[in-house]
Design goal:
The complex is a heterodimer of chains A (252) and B (368).
Chain A lengths: L5 E12 L2 E12 L3 E5 L6 H9 L5 E9 L2 E2 L5 H7 L1 E4 L11 H7 L4 H10 L16 H15 L3 E5 L7 H14 L12 E5 L6 H4 L3 E6 L2 E6 L1 H25 L1
Parallel strand pairs in A: 3-8, 3-9, 6-7, 7-8
Antiparallel strand pairs in A: 1-2, 1-4, 4-5, 9-10
Chain B lengths: L10 H6 L12 E6 L2 E7 L4 E5 H7 L1 H6 L10 H7 L6 E5 L9 E7 L4 E11 L4 E10 L5 E12 L4 E9 L3 E12 L4 E8 L5 E3 L3 E4 L4 E10 L4 E10 L5 E10 L3 E10 L4 E11 L5 E10 L4 E10 L3 H8 L5 H13 L8 H13 L7
Classes of the chains: A alpha/beta (252), B alpha/beta (368).
């Protein structure tokens, strides 16, 4: 933790994928126990932001800084960031011929009984000996992501559309496991885990009770506020209206 | 004679290819050949018979009629050499109706430098019987050069099941030429697994199966080709009568070795069905994998399919695994070991576990 109590500090972050600018001067600070929601249309840079924080190599930092627990992580490979306490659920994870889900979890050093208990809860027991995501349905892929990240127990959880393509029953299940991971039953001061959640539908808001909401457009955070307020405004006016906030937020 | 004649320090080599010298593991019969000499031929199960081929030919004149019936003497120089050599190797016969779930083990060990080991095995699963065979082939730790020529003819009679799991762990300068063929009679099941994970000069193996009415033949080849190794492997399955089915799966990884990965399925009768998979992973620029899947239909109501893919592990897959806190080498190892540890349909769990254990324990050349 840095001296101001921030778990994550993103400062003036500019990122390219190949020659395309995907993030333009992002500033974001997250305290221990906070949950931030990021809204935005397709292609606005939400996934790029999470991928950059995680350290996926296709995201090339041109300018800016990322600090985790007060230390710069921008030159760190993703596996070291994971060991430091950052975890990511992918929106579209690859299917991996060869690597079996249970073997990955074992290599991660997770105890077998813990794996089985959570897999049972997430209806994934039969998926453990299977190759990761191969032939999994959309809902199974999402549950598998939650299973892996829950068992990883990161301090900063990055959730990329965990509820997209998931039926209502499974949204409740996934949300309750995520809620548990994020210690939502504890008062914020006692929570040790923080999260950035990308959502398209906003369904997950009903279960997570986020602390802050942000809107991203064209690689920038253009609006921030209470998550329900931000989401209500998007529902009423669409993302086009959010563009007008750009001026006001900058003025603020 | 017994396995005591194998030096203590070399027994580990045998263990690595699935041959238990301790007597602790359950085996229904054991056969051990060192160079060109039979050291052990014993059985614990009454309903099978295991003998050296030499003795079998003396005891049962009809065994001679089974020799070079499925593999032609004139197939190539190696079969001609075997035909002109004394009949070494083993003869195994499982009596009609006998279901033997405990595996039979055999091992061909080369202990003399530059030796040429020539064997001819005859295996007969009589009607309604079942048997599972592990065959390990290896060299003494000090042997670097040598050759192994192995003829094996399988007779899978009506409604019989025979699985044959061959594990090879040769030395870097050894050349290996197995020549095998199976006759799978009505409703018979034949499963052949071939696993080679260590460095070898050359392995050239292309077993065949002739599958009759309702029979099944499955071939699995699991190869990890290290630097300076050359493999020409695969199988051919001839679906000759109604309802015959065949499967050929080649899983190949090259960390610098060259591999020709072949498969041929012939659909020659009504309601025959065959599938083939030739998958290859190239871990660096030094290696080569040439997949040659062949399907041939000569009867309209045959259904044949194949999938073939050769390439590197996608960066996206490695990057994904690394986000779980594992480094790049571990991520590659997880993918490669899992890729090789393919689930073999119809193989007893004990043997599936044996193969998984060998892949797990293998250093894979110390690269990953």
């Amino acid at each position: 933790m840095d001296k101001n109590g921030y778990l994550l500090e993103v400062e003036d972050l500019w990122v390219k994928v190949e020659s395309k600018q995907v993030l333009r001067g992002i500033n974001l600070r997250i305290k221990k126990g906070e949950i931030h929601i990021i809204f935005g249309p397709n292609g606005s840079g939400k996934t790029s932001l999470l991928g950059t924080i995680m350290g996926l190599p296709q995201y090339r930092i041109i300018k800016g800084e990322i600090k985790f627990k007060g230390e710069s992580i921008k030159n760190m490979p993703s596996f070291e960031r994971a060991r430091l306490g950052i975890g990511l659920t992918f929106q579209h994870p690859p299917s991996i011929k060869g690597a079996r889900l249970e073997n990955l979890l074992k290599v991660m050093g997770i105890e077998e009984q813990r794996i089985k208990n959570l897999a049972k809860r997430l209806s994934l027991l039969e998926h453990l000996p299977r190759e990761i995501n191969r032939g999994f349905s959309g809902g199974e892929v999402k549950r598998s992501e939650v299973l892996q990240v829950y068992l990883q127990q990161p301090e900063l959880v990055l959730l990329d559309e965990p509820e997209s393509g998931v039926d209502l029953e499974n949204i409740v299940l996934i949300s309750s496991v995520i809620g548990e991971l994020l210690e939502k039953n504890k008062p914020i001061i006692k929570r040790k885990k923080s999260a950035i959640v990308i959502t398209h539908t906003g369904y997950i808001l009903d279960y997570l009770h986020a602390d802050k909401g942000h809107v991203m457009l064209n690689g920038e955070i253009v609006c921030s506020g209470g998550p329900e307020d931000v989401f209500d405004k998007i529902k009423k006016c669409g993302y086009e209206q959010c563009a007008s906030c750009l001026t006001s937020s900058k003025e603020k | 004679m017994n396995s005591e004649t194998i030096p203590e320090g070399e027994k580990k080599r045998l263990e690595k290819v699935g041959y238990d010298t301790s007597g602790k593991l359950s085996r229904s019969a054991s056969f051990l050949m060192s160079d060109n000499r039979t050291l052990l031929s014993e059985k614990k199960e009454k309903k099978l018979e295991i003998l050296s081929t030499e003795l079998a030919v003396e005891k049962y004149p009809w065994v001679k009629d089974l020799m070079f019936k499925l593999v032609s003497k004139d197939k190539d120089d190696y079969t001609r050499l075997a035909a002109s050599s004394p009949p070494r190797g083993f003869f195994l016969r499982v009596l009609p109706g006998a279901k033997i779930n405990i595996p039979v083990q055999s091992c061909f060990f080369i202990k003399t430098k530059r030796l040429s080991q020539v064997v001819h095995n005859i295996i007969v699963a009589e009607p309604e019987s079942e048997v599972h065979i592990i065959t390990g082939c290896t060299t003494a730790s000090y042997v670097k050069q040598g050759s192994h020529i192995g003829i094996t003819e399988f007779y899978v009679r009506e409604n019989a099941t025979l699985t044959y799991t061959m594990l090879h762990d040769w030395a870097p300068e050894v050349v290996v030429y197995p020549r095998s063929s199976a006759l799978v009679e009505k409703n018979g099941v034949f499963i052949s697994n071939y696993i080679a994970l260590t460095r070898v000069k050359e392995i050239n193996s292309y077993p065949e199966a002739h599958v009759k009415d309702g029979g099944i033949a499955r071939f699995y080849s699991i190869i990890y080709a290290q630097d300076e190794s050359f493999f020409d492997i695969g199988a051919a399955t001839f679906l000759e009568e109604k309802g015959a089915r065949g499967e050929i799966i080649n899983r190949v990884v090259s960390s610098g070795g060259r591999v020709v990965s072949r498969g041929h399925i012939l659909g020659a009768a009504k309601d025959t069905k065959g599938h083939m998979e030739c998958s290859g992973l190239l871990l660096n620029k030094k290696g080569m994998i040439h997949a040659i899947p062949e399907l041939k239909g000569i009867f309209p109501e045959t259904e044949l399919s194949h999938e073939a893919a050769v390439g590197k592990i996608a960066d996206e897959e490695i990057n994904y695994l690394m986000t779980r806190g594992i480094d790049k080498d571990t991520a590659v190892s997880l993918i490669v070991r899992g890729f090789l540890d393919t689930k073999i349909k119809g193989l007893p769990p004990q043997l599936q576990k044996l193969i998984a254990g060998i892949i797990e324990k293998s250093s894979l050349g110390g690269r990953i």
